[in-house]
């Protein structure tokens, strides 16, 4: 189960790496900087696949029924997701790479706090130790960046950039907690379908407001178009697979697993962009993976609601790292099958 969780997490990291590489190519080779348009392409793909599937789903729980009951909730979710993507990318224009990499980790404690209160997740000491180890690995990666000379831009407005990173990381945490709740309590199709609908609307409006001139100045050719398609494909795969991973793990473990995405980008950058190699990158990767394994090795639990204190113990077992929970609890086969 742990190996499967690690493999799924690294698959997500590779998807994020693909988005980073294509974005950097667009920026450095063709001077194209359109983060909102790139996000808009992803939301359009989600709309064309999952929103239409939700619209034609038989039964009462289809698109119209969900809109009638929960439209305002999914507007807030779409807004959080769109702005999280935008704020993090925009922060690079104002602050340093080091600040973005370090402050982006602020989303992990925010995510754990939200999971504690909203999803009723209960952590053990080893989980906090594991998070600390992962963040130590991120610090090692930042140190390697500085030694390798990647920290060249001092930033035009560091304070504004840092605030944007913190806001973006917090919105990511909100989006991820909502995603975990929906895919575990409701369905993956509902989450992706509604996010595709409102993400397309919100990002489309914002695209017309903030990036109209940037879009008009692009000198289109087949290479630029191919990079946009590659970015959208990587992002679509990330959004499609992440709910599947969260269903068997949790939002926190997913976010710890994808900390290696920057390292994959750096490894590819050695060949594509001429980055300088540092052995600290390997040390950082090892430390992050060690913390990730520590986190996944011990299951969290989900606290039972106050009104359910008399329910048998099986109901108090959470669904994060489900395979480990079944093994640890020693439940009879019939109870395990029901769970």
Automatic annotation (TrEMBL):
Transmembrane regions listed in the UniProt entry: 7-27, 39-59, 100-119, 126-147, 159-177, 189-210, 222-242, 254-273, 279-296
Entry GO MF terms: transmembrane transporter activity
Record flagged with keyword Transport: yes
InterPro entries listed in its UniProt record: EmrE-like, SLC35_F1/F2/F6, SLC35F_Transporter
UniProt cross-references to SUPFAM superfamilies, sorted A to Z: Multidrug resistance efflux transporter EmrE (SSF103481)
Family: Belongs to the SLC35F solute transporter family.
UniProt name for this protein: Solute carrier family 35 member F2
The organism's taxonomic lineage, starting at the top: Eukaryota, Metazoa, Chordata, Craniata, Vertebrata
Annotated gene: SLC35F2
